[in-house]
Amino acid sequence: MDAPSLPETYRAILTIRRFEERLLSLHQEGLIQGSMHLCNGQEAIPVGACRELRADDALTATYRGHGWAIARGLPLPDLFAELMGRASPLCGGRGGSAYLCGAPYGFLGENSIVGAGVPIAAGAALAARRDGAGAVSLVSIGDGALNQGAVGEALNFAAALALPLVVVVENNIYSEMTPIKEMVAIDPLAQRAAGFGIPSVTVDGNDTAVVQAAVAEAVARARSGGGPTLVEAMTERLVGHYTGDAQQYRPAGEVEAAKTREPLTRLRAAAGQELGAELAVVDEEVEATIESAVQEAMGYPRPDPAGAALGVYVD
Predict the structure, then answer these.
(1) Exposed e or buried b for every residue in 90-124, given b needs 16+ CB within 10 A?
(2) How far apart are CA 263 and CA 277, in angstroms?
(3) Residue 156: is its pLDDT beyond 70?
(4) Are 158 and 227 spatial neighbours (Cβ–Cβ below 8 Å)?
(5) Residue 1: is its pLDDT beyond 90?
(6) Is-contact 246 240, C-beta < 8 A?
(7) Residue 279 CB partners (closer than 8 Å, separation 6+)
């Protein structure tokens, strides 16, 4: 796939950033209940990866999955409505922040159990293999998920059957509040894939083009019958593990330093004076798009209590 222009990439990443920031303000206004796991700083990974997915490919994400949903094409008003507990076309307000999905968009959804998306994605990869249409299954997980037994079982299963699976590890250097370097003796984490006979690569997760290139190679391998690939994308989150996390465990100055390396900062620096004015226009347009989506979502009805049991039992 041809590389998008810098303003296009900037727009895609900025849309996710402003979406997450607007969610936080809605949460503070009491319009969203419960905690959320925002992806500020990690947006380049879903933007780059999803550019290599076809409409019939499957995507599975973690509970930090808003950016993946947006990159996959789920409508912003529907997403805002879902997180506000309104009767959205996605999950009717039942999915919320950590469980939203959108099957018509190839988004199998999020999961709040660490690593649980990999077995689900392996199942989708097996279905794709049997379907024979050349579709692939891509799943995002955090660095800490590689310590989960279910992830190891799913990777072994996918490798043994050479399933069309792409695993993207978003390594933001923290497993919740614990530095991953204190939990795992190897560096980079991608080395773990070798134990399953799975090729892997570690890339700069703050560079959309680099992520896209790595995922493109992995997807091509999967479509051609070459089996799974693990892509470790290094990044840093600019916010807490969840809303309300004061990040007292992070060394002084770490977040400020991360802000000098994050995707939007890089793109603005790369744009220079030549594209600076164009990015300023994008800023205004994205702000307007986000606010319009919020207002539209506000008009979605509240869920009907009479339908509380729908989807719980087989009819």
Answers:
(1) bbbbbbbbbebbbeebbbbbbbeebbbbbbbbbbb
(2) 18
(3) yes
(4) yes
(5) no
(6) yes
(7) 7, 10, 267, 268, 271
**What DSSP character marks residue 230?**
E
Strands of 66-199, DSSP E: 107-109, 137-142, 165-171, 174-175, 178-179
Superfamily (CATH) of domain 6-296: Thiamin diphosphate (ThDP)-binding fold, Pyr/PP domains (3.40.50.970)
Check: CB of residue 144 under 8 Å from CB of residue 111.
no
Helix (H, G, I), strand (E, B), or coil: what is residue 161? coil
Instruction: Please give the C-alpha separations between residue 294 and each of 76, 82, 208, 239, 275, in angstroms, as whole numbers.
Output: 8, 11, 27, 22, 29
Could you state, in order of their start, the residue ranges of all structural domains in the chain? 6-296
Beta bridge partners of 107: 59, 102
> What are the pLDDT digits (tens) for 55-110?
999 999 999 999 999 999 999 999 999 999 999 999 999 999 999 999 999 999 99
> Residue 276 is encoded by which pair of tokens?
């600076």
